[in-house]
């Protein structure tokens, strides 16, 4: 999940113009937490941490569309961010205000050609949103269709002064999980949106159109426009499911693992920016594949399977843990992970 949080954060922020590169996102965590970290990296770090907190302290399914839940998601995105990054420009004259994370906007805004509901009407729209998209009222295939509609409508309402796009995509991730879409933790809508941001914005804009006559829905917005966005949303979801299925296909994944560890053993692996990476015993490949196929293992079980002495086994596991290929400490079970060196090789075209 750690790596998918990074993928989600990278693409969601990229859509908003964040210039961080995958290599920056994959750096060790302490690089992102330095006091001199750029705004772009700080946004990504806070986004990653927000996803973790929402996973550890999840919102009840029936409450996912409430004003409090949406406000919390926005607030989580900005937790730990520098105050200077909360100052946002509100007009062409250079006037700026200090945004309060999680607080609904109290003034009118314009987003390109779109003029969201006035501040006076905003709470009424959020009350409607809460009722219309309450996830426990949707069943079968309906939750993914509701997720598409809710994503657009929340973006259209534009409840916050800034950060609406990232908050909207974070909301959609949470909504899909609450809607019981099994496996949604293994693929990324943000990646799908971010691979072609122009298509994403075009689909959103199509659903912004007002109703075109009495046969185009009953509300103020076009049903046909929302149908176009829903089709785009579902096609994007299917594309992401197919992509992640393809890179997780067992035979091909095993081949990539074999090649990766062979290159590491032969010191033929070249990391990003020609960074020198240490040699691995070829036994590291056995450990990695065994953890992949059989789950967490004890130190003793790994040592027995490898047929190595305790000292050699400990050295090899420590090296793999230091690099991030596994998680292991002391008496804990050894579990599988992904290092910043291995992720792009084992999961090509992820970024």
Give a quick precis of the structure.
This protein is mainly alpha-helical and 351 residues long. 55% of the residues lie in helices and 3% in strands. The strands form 2 sheets. A two-stranded antiparallel sheet has the order 1-2.
3D structure, described in words:
The protein has 351 residues and is mostly helical. 55% of the residues lie in helices and 3% in strands. The chain has 16 helices and four strands. Helix 6 packs antiparallel against helix 7, helix 9 crosses helix 11 and helix 12 runs antiparallel to helix 13. 33% of the residues are buried.
Describe the secondary structure blueprint for this structure.
Blueprint: H1 2-15, H2 22-25, H3 29-32, H4 39-56, H5 67-77, E1 87-89, E2 96-98, H6 119-132, H7 142-157, H8 164-178, H9 189-195, H10 197-206, H11 223-247, H12 250-265, H13 283-294, H14 299-306, H15 310-323, E3 326-327, E4 335-336, H16 343-346
Antiparallel strand pairs: 1-2, 3-4
Strand order of the largest sheet: 1-2
**End-to-end distance, in Å?**
16 Å
Return the string of H and E elements: HHHHHEEHHHHHHHHHHEEH
Task: Estimate what percentage of residues fall within beta strands.
Answer: under 5%
Query: How many whole angstroms does the radius of gyration measure?
Result: 23 Å
- Overall, the morphology is elongated
Helical residue percent band: 40-55%
Q: What low-confidence regions span 5 or more consecutive residues with pLDDT below 50?
A: 30-36
Q: Please report the total strand number as a whole number.
A: 4
pLDDT averaged residue by residue = 88
Structural class comes to mainly alpha
Biggest β-sheet: count, sense, barrel?
2 strands, antiparallel
């Amino acid at each position: 999940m750690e790596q998918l949080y990074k993928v989600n954060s990278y693409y969601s922020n990229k859509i908003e113009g964040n210039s961080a590169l995958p290599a920056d996102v994959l750096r060790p965590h302490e690089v992102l937490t330095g006091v001199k970290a750029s705004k772009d990296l700080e946004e990504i770090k806070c986004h990653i941490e927000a996803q973790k907190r929402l996973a550890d302290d999840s919102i009840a399914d029936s409450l996912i569309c409430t004003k409090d839940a949406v406000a919390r998601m926005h607030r989580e995105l900005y937790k730990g961010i520098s105050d200077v990054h909360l100052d946002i420009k509100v007009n062409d004259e250079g006037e700026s205000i200090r945004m309060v994370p999680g607080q609904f906007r109290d003034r009118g805004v314009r987003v390109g050609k779109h003029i969201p509901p006035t501040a006076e009407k905003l709470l009424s729209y959020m009350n409607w949103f809460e009722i219309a998209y309450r996830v426990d009222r949707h069943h079968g295939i309906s939750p993914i269709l509701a997720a598409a509609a809710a994503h657009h409508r929340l973006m259209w309402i534009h409840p916050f002064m800034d950060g609406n796009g990232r908050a909207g995509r974070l909301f959609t991730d949470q909504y899909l999980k609450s809607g019981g879409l099994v496996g949604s933790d293994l693929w990324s809508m943000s990646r799908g949106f971010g691979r072609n941001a122009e298509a994403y914005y075009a689909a959103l804009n199509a659903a912004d159109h007002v109703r075109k006559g009495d046969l185009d829905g009953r509300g103020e917005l076009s049903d046909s426009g929302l149908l176009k966005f829903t089709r785009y949303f579902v096609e994007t979801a299917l594309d992401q499911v197919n992509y992640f299925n393809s890179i997780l296909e067992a035979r091909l994944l095993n081949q990539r693992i074999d090649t990766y560890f062979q290159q590491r053993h032969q010191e033929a692996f070249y990391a990003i920016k020609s960074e020198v990476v240490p040699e691995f015993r070829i036994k590291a490949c056995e450990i990695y594949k065994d953890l992949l196929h059989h789950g967490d293992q004890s130190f003793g079980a790994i040592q027995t399977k490898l047929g190595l002495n305790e000292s050699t086994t400990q050295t090899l596991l420590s090296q793999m843990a230091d690099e991030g290929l596994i998680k292991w400490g002391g008496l804990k079970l050894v579990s599988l992970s992904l290092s910043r060196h291995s992720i792009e090789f084992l999961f090509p075209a992820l970024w």
